[in-house]
Amino acid sequence: MGTPTYVMTLPLKVETWQEHILEKRLNIGRNIYNACLGEAWRRYKYMIRNPRYWESVRMPKGKERNQLLNQLKEQYGVRKFDLNMYVQEMGHKFKRNIGSQMAQNIAERAFQAMEKVMYGNGKKVHFCSVGQFFSLEEKTNKTGFRYIPENKRMEWLGVILPVMMKDQDEYAHLALQDKIKYCRLLKKQIRGKNRYFVQFVLEGFPPRKRNQNYSKDENARVGLDIGTSTLAVTSENEVKLLELAEGLAVEERKKRILQRKLDRQRRANNPNKYNDDGTINRSNREKWIQSENYRKTRKELAEMSRKVADKRKQAHNQLANHILSLGLDVRVETMNFKGLQAKAKKTEVSEKTGRFKRKKRFGKSLANRAPSMLLSIIDNKLNYFGLSLKRIDTAKVKASQFEHFTQTYVKKKLSKRWNHFEQGDVQRDLYSAFLIMNTKDNLCEIDVERANKTWNHFFDKHQQEIERIKQLNKKQLSSIGL
Asked: Compositional bias of type Polar residues: which residue ranges (predicted)?
């Protein structure tokens, strides 16, 4: 297991003539990546034509099967080592712009993309088009693209790039005292202009910021019931029902408008590329025509997407910090977000209208709200304390069906948003978060005794939260059922 690692990003001061060099080197990196990916794909296609490959795939998992697959990979050169050997000649050819270690790193990135197809996590490889290769990195901070602490600058094969770091940036100065594993050049397009950054990959744990107020109690529990667009939080001190990535509705609407505009322009420029029913004519092999207005709209959409992504990440980090201020024993249900993202397989007809029901499920909501990203951020922050996010067994706990008073399971429709008790009605998501908080240490069953002890306090906090939501001057959260 590797040492703990974190990343810090700082902008670079780049002159116009230096930008030309950086663009040239990024394009060389793109060509090396595509060449390595194409070679790996070619070797893989040859390997799967061998009947022995399919015999080994059908074998039961075990040592014999792994040995046979490894022999085939060695025979056809479908290994990271083989791709590193393949890229050596290209590294020598472009040594004035791309170092040998950087070329090997590019080859390893191509092999990682190939592995996704080999192990069933992808259907095909995707080559990188012109202008879409945005990063290059080294393996160490000793050669090639490296940081010189005495002068606070990056040096890269004759190009000197000052790192823009403020004197009062206490966090950056403390972080750079840690060991630098390697550095990454990162290109971003911000407001139509190219900006360049250096990402320091540092060993250890990030310095604590002054405004961070994490809990010091590793036993203080927090239960999370996460949905496609909302999050229910229950702790000993707080009960909240929150909207994920709150405040992005306006930007998301602008993004959808630009997407529709882009589609109209694409169809107007290429009428022969579409069938009469509006679908793409795949038999037409003519080149797609892109007008100047189309390219302008595409740049606007890219800028809007960047803004939405940055705001979403910032909102998730703030929410993760707030959750960790409530406690460090964070528990959540295991969720198959990929399954929720996929379309429904079953074709159904509506009884009222007689029309086919749409197969779309939660793909758009998951893309906009990114609940999985929030859980990853929380888990990464917990790792700094030597802890991890505790994922309960959803199939065994069944938090959305369990009632701790009667200790019974009652299956409920998704449309039913409230649970009815003698003390009063309780919102379904908040009650699930309450039960998740009160799971046993085996994460497989509810601790009923603990739930009974904390119930009254939870119910009081729950009533306060419902009153808060009622007083909001905005559209109510759809899952609350009000």
From this structure: 268-282
CB of 168 within 8 A of CB of 174? no
212 occurs within a structural domain: no
**Predicted local confidence at residue 400, as pLDDT:** 84
| Host domain of residue 393 | 221-480
Residues 6+ apart with CB under 8 A from 220: 235, 236, 326, 327, 328, 329
Phi-psi label, residue 443: left if phi above 0, alpha if psi -120 to 50, beta otherwise: left
Give per-residue pLDDT as tens, 100-137: 999 999 999 999 999 999 887 778 899 999 988 999 99
Report which of 163, 168, 159, 158 is spatially closest to residue 180, judged by C-alpha positions.
163
- Sequence-distant (6+) residues with CB within 8 A of 347 are 356, 357, 359
Domain count, the chain: 2
DSSP assignments along 19-42, one per residue: HHHHHHHHHHHHHHHHHHHHHHHH
Q: Closest by alpha carbon to 239, among 460, 472, 452?
A: 460
Do 434 and 329 lie in one domain? The reply is: yes
Taking only the tens place, the pLDDT of each residue in 157-181 is 999 999 999 989 999 999 999 999 9
Going by C-beta distance under 8 Å and a sequence separation of 6 or more, which residues neighbour residue 149?
176
Is the same domain home to 321 and 358? yes
Are 166 and 228 found together in one domain? no
Q: How far apart are CA 236 and CA 437, in angstroms?
A: 9
Read off the pLDDT of residues 434-466 as tens digits, 9 standing for 90 and up. Answer: 999 999 889 888 888 998 899 999 999 989 988
Instruction: Quote the CA–CA distance of 181 and 158 in Å, as a whole number.
Output: 21
